[in-house]
Amino acid sequence: MSLWRYRDAALSLALLNLRLRYNNTLIGASWSLVNPLFFTLIFTFVFTVLLPNETPDFPVFVLSALLAWNYFQAAVVNAAISVTNGRGLVLKIAFPRAVLPAAAILTELVTFSLALSVVIGLLYLSGRGLGTGILALPILVGLLTCLASGLGALLATLNVYLRDTQEFLSVFMFGWFFMTPIIYSLESIPPERLILGMSARTLIQLINPLSPLISAFRQAIYERRFPDLDLISLSALAALFFLAIGARVFGRASRYFAESL
Amino acid sequence: MTCIEVYNVTKTFTIVRDRARTVSGFFIDLIRFWRRLERVPFTALREIQLSVAQGEALGIIGANGSGKSTLLKLIAGIYAPTSGTISVRGSLVALLELGAGFHSELSGRQNILLNGTLYGHTRAEMARRVSEIAAFAEIEPFLETPIKYYSSGMQARLAFAVAMATPAEIILMDEVLAVGDMAFQARCLAKLRQLKAERRTLVLVSHSMDVVRELCDRAIWLDHGCLMAEGTPEEVVAAYQAHSARQNAQIASAHASGAS
């Protein structure tokens, strides 16, 4: 595959992204960790002080899902705008266009991996222990990357022809955040709660391809156990489905990117 | 052996005036789908037939807007042909604009790595060539300086040097020789002669008839997307120059009659 031959191009672009992002910042790459910690603090304040709930270790509960969500969201959004932002390169250099979304994803993967390692380290040092869940993390990160890549490639293609995509995406991501069990768990939705005659739990699981993955991250990090196999297989199904669609659509359309930009 | 085969290639672009890129525009366009007048096809190249042999140097000449750059971009694979086929045998690098892919915040060394990888090389390969490239571009003392502090001549020299460090078998160039001072131009020409001596295939778009005559084995002349002439550089340059002279004479006489 030609993307593999150009993997160093994706790496170079990712390094450029990282360098630009943390240029002129005081704490540099630590932002990838500090940012979710701040969000965790805010959610913890809201859900333990303002709206008390029974969840033990609420900060860990939120952070275990929030880290994965942050990665997913940043990866999808940046991949979606990668081709339109890379117009100058697309018009002048004949490299495989998939390098652009790949670089965007890689950029986020680097910062996410750093943040995740530090969080795991902190949890270990806090004496919570790690459990077998940690063994599943490489698989889960891989699946999350596949899902983000597929969706990102799809949206990047759409954004070439319809710039509304990137505008719409911020609203869409905001809604998606609340439709994903991040600041709540599926189990905390009352089972009798119905949406369109269907149990709300089932509906979220059915329409949200990210839901099983986020739940699996929570089981691995927060519950410290190997995630349920049905969650993993559902996640794999969703990830491979989107990756296949995204790669196919992007691959077909990318021949015409130069003249459409 | 043929290494570039352009077979009956036509390239039509769709020029879109005030294209729908917003939600409302999109829906308005959906409504008047059948009378969307703002899409105008523009044929940049018409039934081009061309083959380039391995080790050959081909010059492409013609007025601005004649389709020269479009042809290079088609061969490079940046555009896809509307009809016809293009086959390329061997590794290819296209220099369409010097400094494309350079980033002003990166140092000379980082830009060498970035640009080289976009041309399909690995970082390790490029890292080995850094000193050679810096020497050719005469930027050694500034290798670790962000290129936003470079003069435009330094940037252009670096870009040319990076591009020339490629081991590609086929090299496409779009008017990139007109950079740098005279000494550097002489070195560029020497470099191109060396590439030719190495039996690499060159396709040059140039407005410099001297370069075409001196460097190329063969030339083609494009005008408004049509292949007007093909042959030795002397013949083709002469035909192009005669045509340009005729056109200038016509414009001059039109001005003269308009003024009287």
UniProtKB/TrEMBL annotation, chain A:
Species whose genome carries this gene: Candidatus Thermofonsia Clade 1 bacterium
PROSITE patterns to which the protein is assigned, alphabetical: ABC_TM2
GO molecular function: ABC-type transporter activity
Keyword Transmembrane listed: yes
TM spans (from-to): 31-51, 58-81, 101-125, 137-162, 168-186, 231-251
Localization: Cell membrane
Record-linked PANTHER family: CAPSULE POLYSACCHARIDE EXPORT INNER-MEMBRANE PROTEIN CTRC (PTHR30413:SF10), INNER MEMBRANE TRANSPORT PERMEASE (PTHR30413)
Annotated family: Belongs to the ABC-2 integral membrane protein family.
Lineage: Bacteria, Bacillati, Chloroflexota, Candidatus Thermofontia, Candidatus Thermofonsia Clade 1
Keywords: Cell membrane, Membrane, Transmembrane, Transmembrane helix, Transport
GO cellular component: plasma membrane
GO biological process: lipopolysaccharide transport
ABC transmembrane type-2 domain location: 27-253
Database matches in InterPro entries: ABC2_TM, ABC2_TM_bact-type
Membrane protein topology class: Multi-pass membrane protein
Name of this protein: Transport permease protein
